Amino acid sequence: MKKSSRRLQSVMMTLGPFSNARDRQAAAGKLLAAVAVTLIGTLQTFDLAGLRINTSPSLPVGLYMTTSGHGANLIEFCPASSFGSMALQRGYRSAGSCKDGGAPLLKPVIAKPGDVVDVSATGLEVNGRKVPNTAPMTADIKGRPLAAWPSGRYAVRPTEVWVASPFNSRSFDSRYFGPVSMATIREHLRPLITFGK
Which architecture, in CATH terms, is 54-195? Predict the structure, then answer.
């Protein structure tokens, strides 16, 4: 009981000596705005420093850093318009800095120019090796239909890569939207600090 009372007193002191609910509400709003501005500033600083926080299940949760090494097997890219719009409308992507208003995707590159990708109902294979957890789903977790990329064998062209998450069987990646144009790649990334998987 004493702890709860102390917490309440602490909150009241933070809000200041306001006599009515309207004043307390205004003070709480200002406090929340200050926290939001600080958070936005921190995120912008992270972005300028080349840091990315990943909370999506397509990669291990953690902190990633941009790199000039084009051999890095993680990329940040804006998906092609039709697939990007669908992902944004369905909530697979949050709001962000891509032209369509959505956040860029962070995905592992599984195939590069010169590789051969086989697409089937059982998943993706690269140069004859199965990529784990890449069997396409017929519907998302809300029951909305998902169309897989057409089955077949694809030679990866010099201007593209294929991306897929071996970590997450529900990742929205090349199993649905096929190859990614290198022109859409914004950054190459490497893990800095990751947790799990």
Answer: Ribbon (2.10)
